[in-house]
């Protein structure tokens, strides 16, 4: 009897340890890890990223684009003229946000909503990408001759924003896009335009990164004088602020303007210096 008691006393601790290890394995196998901060702001540069504003958070964005650098010294390399956009974004919850903005270029008002459909995860649930749906409306209010109706001055945008954070240092996004303009500026242009964007982020340090963005419009939709938008930026994060110093060939900052109506060419030096400042408050 004593030998049996000693044997049981010897086995029980190992049995308990084995049970604890098994429970830890089960717990680990059920854990889901969500990839966060694919990009540091709701925009890559001009275009939207998969990121949304957190629940009950508000994001205030100041965007500024100077005139073309090739204007020369007389125009102080574009710094004498500029356009700006003031934007406000609010998170309804951690997946759904709304926003609005006003651009001085063509006196444009824009309104939009974003919904994060999928989040990149690993572990028990493996989702390889994040997917965010974007829908936007913009209207020009600048006076024209002849005067156009509100409908003729309106445009609509729909996007699937698909991104993957490959590592802590590198993220990539694809942005299939459909833009409908009730009235195109050039009558031979398609009113409905299909495009795709690609953007990326390369992290340099804990608070700095390089971003790039390119929007490709499929052929035979817009006039040959319009060019595809290409932009680069250096990003600096400080607390609740994200600063972007950027170069782009687009003067406008709404989807209609920088995707379908960019008339500047990098090859000709039609490059605009600018910046974005994003401030998040809770």
Can you give a write-up of this model?
This protein is mostly beta strands. The protein folds into two domains: 1-30; 34-281, Porin. Helices cover 12% and strands 46% of the residues. The protein contains two helices and 14 strands. It has helices at residues 2-29, 255-260, and strands at 32-34, 58-68, 82-91, 96-103, 108-118, 121-123, 130-140, 154-165, 170-181, 192-203, 208-217, 229-238, 241-248, 272-281. It has a twelve-stranded antiparallel β-barrel with strand order 2-3-4-5-7-8-9-10-11-12-13-14. A hairpin with a 4-residue loop joins strand 8 and strand 9. The longest helix has 28 residues, at 2-29. It starts with a helix and ends with a strand. Residues 1-18 have low confidence and may be disordered.
Tally of distinct domains: 2
Uncertain spans: 1-18
Measured on Cα atoms, how large is the radius of gyration? Answer: 25 Å
CATH architectural designation of the largest domain: Beta Barrel
Name the average pLDDT: 89
What percent of residues adopt helix (DSSP H or I)? 10-25%
Order of helices and strands, N to C? HEEEEEEEEEEEEEHE
Strand order of the largest sheet: 2-3-4-5-7-8-9-10-11-12-13-14
The number of helical elements comes to 2
The gross shape turns out to be: globular
What percent strand? over 45%
Structural class: mainly beta
Q: Any idea of the CATH class of the largest domain?
A: Mainly Beta
Q: Give the tally of β-strands.
A: 14
In the CATH scheme, what's the topology name of the largest domain? Porin
CATH homologous superfamily descriptor of the largest domain: monomeric porin ompg
Q: What does the largest sheet look like?
A: 12 strands, antiparallel, barrel
Distance between the termini: 68 Å
